[in-house]
């Protein structure tokens, strides 16, 4: 399977075989990601981090991934102090930066920015989120977390929260449809997953059911994927609190859950997961944030041709 | 209507292209897609709401220019039943229906204001075109947003 010099733009570019290949490569990276082994796999290689939007986890985990593999990182730094503030196009920025580095990680507020960058770049582009568009490395790390902490085959998963606007859950559902997952969608009616996406996912092989409360679904699922409900989606603050409280999980919510249930969240969380759950074996969200490192290490190793 | 009356309305052309059976009211959009009249030195005549065998239609006649296939197929986005007649020496030498293209570039703009194709980047818009029971669907290659209604309003 050839990944060398490929761009990582959209989860739609990946077949199930390609995803499995990346997840297997990530597993081999884990001891290095934990600092238990040293590696100089990407020694002499430089990764540019071009983030036009704020980010903590994605940026830091890409940096960590590159450093753990012995490579170097070049950061764009503040937009205000760069040529972008002078009105430079993204196309020009990419054509300049690709002369300095071996790969570029891009986060940009405009949808389609990563695809544009790939049209102008001679080095691999890794999309770290383009507006409400694609964020393929998040999807891959979510899949990796499910694989490591639960199982991808025969998975029963519930997704709860904002299923209308959340690109993370849309992408994850598309990817899980490749594995024939049984997906339960839990959201207030204002934030239901768009019908078009549900139809697409069903057509691709997932089995979808919808329900109103976490309690109703909890006893039957292997993974509960929580997302944050954004206050600004509700014109009436009282309505927001009503909905947010209904989709909050506490130890009581989980009393009928399977013992091996895993709870995931892309973070940051606000109050949708009670902190008393953090120390239970169900909590998986901090591990999920860590798993971003081996997954991104695998991707960097693959596109830079250091591993196959 | 006599031949003379017809002749007075829009004369026959000696050489060039006649686009017939354009959806009524869409002739000006067809001109826009084809970059006419700027892209032609000859006379361009337009009939709007002309009566044909199947009811109202528009017709565009372009003198001294034979339009090429891929150039013309783009008009299928707004006039899927149009026919292209190549005229030489007052005779129709070739007649084709427009083919709906599978991909269009630089013809329509994306409806998503946050799409990178709607910024000052040096790129042209690109859309994958599919035909569904409900009509044409144009999917933006950059952001994935689908245009399925009022395509004419998105013409660049």
TrEMBL record, chain A:
Pathway: Pyrimidine metabolism; UMP biosynthesis via de novo pathway; (S)-dihydroorotate from bicarbonate: step 2/3. InterPro entries: Asp/Orn_carbamoyltranf_P-bd, Asp/Orn_carbamoylTrfase, Asp/Orn_carbamoylTrfase_sf, Asp_carbamoyltransf, Asp_carbamoyltransf_Asp/Orn-bd. One of its GO terms (molecular function) is amino acid binding. Catalyzes the condensation of carbamoyl phosphate and aspartate to form carbamoyl aspartate and inorganic phosphate, the committed step in the de novo pyrimidine nucleotide biosynthesis pathway. Belongs to the aspartate/ornithine carbamoyltransferase superfamily. ATCase family. HAMAP family: Asp_carb_tr. This is Aspartate carbamoyltransferase. It comes from Methanolobus profundi.
UniProtKB/TrEMBL annotation, chain B:
Zn(2+) binds at residues 110, 115, 140, 143. Pfam families: PyrI (PF01948), PyrI_C (PF02748). Residues 8-99 form the Aspartate carbamoyltransferase regulatory subunit N-terminal domain. Residues 104-150 form the Aspartate carbamoyltransferase regulatory subunit C-terminal domain. Keywords: Metal-binding, Pyrimidine biosynthesis, Transferase, Zinc. One of its GO terms (biological process) is 'de novo' pyrimidine nucleobase biosynthetic process. One of its GO terms (molecular function) is metal ion binding. InterPro entries: Asp_carbamoyltransf_reg_N (IPR020545), Asp_carbamoylTrfase_reg (IPR002801), Asp_carbamoyltrfase_reg_C (IPR020542), Asp_carbatrfase_reg_C_sf (IPR036792), Asp_carbatrfase_reg_N_sf (IPR036793). Its cofactor is Zn(2+). Binds 1 zinc ion per subunit. Coiled coil: none annotated. GO terms for cellular component: aspartate carbamoyltransferase complex. Involved in allosteric regulation of aspartate carbamoyltransferase. Contains catalytic and regulatory chains. Belongs to the PyrI family. HAMAP family: Asp_carb_tr_reg (MF_00002). NCBIfam families: ATCase_reg (TIGR00240). This is Aspartate carbamoyltransferase regulatory chain. The gene is pyrI.
């Amino acid at each position: 399977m050839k990944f060398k010099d490929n761009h990582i733009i959209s989860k739609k570019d990946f077949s199930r075989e390609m995803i499995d290949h990346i997840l297997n490569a990530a597993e081999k990276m884990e001891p290095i990601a934990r600092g238990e082994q040293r590696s100089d796999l990407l020694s002499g290689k430089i990764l540019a981090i071009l983030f036009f939007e704020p980010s903590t986890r994605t940026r830091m985990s890409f940096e960590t991934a590159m450093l753990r593999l012995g490579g170097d990182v070049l950061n764009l730094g503040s937009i205000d102090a760069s040529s972008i503030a002078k009105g430079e196009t993204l196309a020009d920025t990419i054509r300049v930066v690709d002369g300095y580095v071996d790969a570029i990680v891009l986060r940009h507020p405009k949808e389609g920015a990563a695809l544009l960058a790939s049209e102008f770049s001679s080095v691999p582009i890794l999309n770290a989120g383009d507006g409400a568009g694609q964020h393929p490395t998040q999807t891959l790390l979510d899949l990796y977390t499910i694989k490591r902490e639960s199982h991808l085959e025969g998975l029963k998963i519930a997704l709860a929260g904002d299923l209308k606007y959340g690109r993370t859950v849309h992408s994850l559902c598309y990817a899980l449809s490749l594995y024939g997952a049984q997906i339960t969608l839990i959201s207030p009616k204002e934030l239901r997953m768009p019908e078009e996406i549900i139809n697409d996912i069903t057509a691709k092989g997932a089995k979808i059911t919808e329900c109103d409360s976490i309690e109703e679904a909890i006893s039957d699922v292997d993974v509960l994927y929580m997302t944050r409900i954004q206050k600004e989606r509700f014109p009436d603050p009282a309505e927001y609190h009503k909905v947010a409280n209904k989709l909050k999980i506490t130890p009581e919510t989980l009393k009928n859950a399977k013992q091996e249930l895993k709870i995931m969240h892309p973070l940051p969380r606000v109050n949708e997961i009670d902190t008393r759950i953090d120390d239970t074996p169900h909590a998986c969200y901090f591990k999920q944030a860590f798993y971003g490192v081996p997954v991104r290490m695998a991707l960097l190793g693959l596109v830079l041709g250091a591993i196959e | 209507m006599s031949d003379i009356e017809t002749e007075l309305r829009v004369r026959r052309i000696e050489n060039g292209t006649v686009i017939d059976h354009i959806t009524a009211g869409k002739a000006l959009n067809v001109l826009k897609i084809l970059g006419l009249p700027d892209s032609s030195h000859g006379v361009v005549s337009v009939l709007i709401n002309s009566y044909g065998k199947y009811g109202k239609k528009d017709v565009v006649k372009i003198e001294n220019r034979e339009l090429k296939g891929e150039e013309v197929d783009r008009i299928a986005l707004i006039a899927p039943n149009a026919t292209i007649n190549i005229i030489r020496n007052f005779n129709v030498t070739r007649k084709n229906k427009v083919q709906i293209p599978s991909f269009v570039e630089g013809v329509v703009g994306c409806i998503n204001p946050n799409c990178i194709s709607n910024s000052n980047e040096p790129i042209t818009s690109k859309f994958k075109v599919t035909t569904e029971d409900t009509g044409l669907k144009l999917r933006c290659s950059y952001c994935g947003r689908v245009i399925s209604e009022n395509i004419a309003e998105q013409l660049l």
